[in-house]
Amino acid sequence: MPRPIIVTCGEPAGIGPELAPALHRAAVPFVWMGDPRHLPDGTAWTEVTDLAQLPADGLAVLRHDFAAPARPGTPDPANAAGVIEVIARAVTLCRDGAASGICTMPIHKKALKDGAGFAFPGHTEFLAHLAGGADVAMMLASTTVDPPCRVVPATIHIALSDVPRTLTPDLLERTIRITRAAMIRDFGLPAPRLAVAGLNPHAGEGGAMGREEQDWISDLVARLRDEGLDISGPLPADTMFHAPARARWDAAICAYHDQALIPMKTLDFSGGVNVTLGLPFVRTSPDHGTAFDIAGTGQADPDSAIAALRMAGQLARARQAQ
Fold first, then answer.
1. Are strands 193-197 and 150-153 parallel, antiparallel or unpaired?
2. Residue 265 annotated as binding site
3. In terms of domains, do 229 and 163 share one?
4. Is 38 a known ligand-binding residue?
5. Strand, coil or helix: what is 86?
6. How many CB atoms are closer than 10 A to CB 86?
7. In what order do the strands lie in the sheet with 137-141?
8. What is the pLDDT of residues 216-231, one digit of tens each?
């Protein structure tokens, strides 16, 4: 039996726990880690202690007791430490070889900070810390459109006004190299085709709309191409995401958050998956948040969580094959 994926519970007051019963539709061996009290009423679950022996039916649960029950829509600071502990425990199990990857349900950073002094901007940075300071990048990948849309923003959660000075040659080159390595190792593409979006409209239009492309982005892309990378750019972002354009690349490195996420979410809102590139273990997550406004109402759409678990299984198999 292949090693399972660990699905972490995420914020108990959000929609993460209520999505758990639907995850069997991913057809991937997995175990849910969290407090069974936080699962929806009537969930059939079985506690497991050995990840090599999962039950044939029902939800396999790796139990981790929390301080308090869950109140949908209202995070309890008493549960913050439990959320953090589950993530750390899942990483340990992956690094020890007991699990083949992690699929994380959404956390609420303010709740973790208020309840447990969480000192990281989010999941990705915490996972990189637990991995010993791994150099990582965030990919958003579609699962239901063809050709696929896989985007990696070089800068993420910063103000748009901060992007030009944050997007340095070093940062862009590191993001490109992390992306290429992950496409080879995790997506099984021996010679991935990469596209780099320009920072400015029309990729600067020869300097008329900004000079970053002329001053250094073009030279960086050319140098990497001379090294043997299959890479194009800088490309105008407004013409690189329709289907014929996507057919020419396997992953696109974008300058900033919305440049990457708007096209991906427009193309595949319910099937989008967040993948952390550069970690020594597989990590995916659904492309949505805790959704406190609908938590506990039964309205949560499990499609992104199912896609995230399915992709975690695919990436884990690709790593094992190598």
1. unpaired
2. yes
3. yes
4. no
5. helix
6. 24
7. 45-47, 59-63, 30-34, 5-8, 101-104, 282-286, 273-277, 137-141, 150-153, 251-254, 193-197, 230-235
8. 999 999 999 999 999 9
284 annotated among ligand-binding-site residues: no
Q: Are residues 180 and 290 in the same domain?
A: no
Amino acid, res. 184: I
Do 295 and 272 share a structural domain?
A: no
Asked if 36 and 169 sit in the same domain, the reply is no
pLDDT > 70 in the chain, percent? 100
Does 192 lie in the same domain as 108?
no
143 annotated binding-site participant? no
By residue range, what is the domain housing residue 69? Answer: 1-134+280-322
Domain boundary (245, 260, 278) is at: 278
CA distance 236 to 220: 16
Q: How many structural domains comprise the chain?
A: 2
202 is in an annotated binding site: yes
Q: Give, in order, the Cα–Cα distances in Å from 9 to each of 25, 33, 68, 286.
A: 17, 6, 14, 12
pLDDT at 96 over 60: yes
Same domain as 82, residue 8: yes
Beta carbons of 271 and 143 less than 8 angstroms apart: yes
Q: 97 with 140, same domain?
A: no
pLDDT of residue 122: 85
The rounded distance, in Å, linking the Cα atoms of 243 and 262 is 15
Query: Do residues 272 and 291 both lie within one domain?
Result: no
Question: In the predicted model, is pLDDT for residue 59 greater than 80?
Answer: yes
How is 117-165 classified by DSSP, letter by letter?
---SSSHHHHHHHHTTS---EEEEE-SSSSS--EEEESS-SS-GGGHHH
pLDDT, tens digit, 9 for 90 and up, residues 158-195 = 999 999 999 999 999 999 999 999 999 999 999 999 99
Amino acid at 227: E
Is 283 one of the annotated binding-site residues?
yes
pTM of the predicted model as reported, rounded to 2 decimal places: 0.93
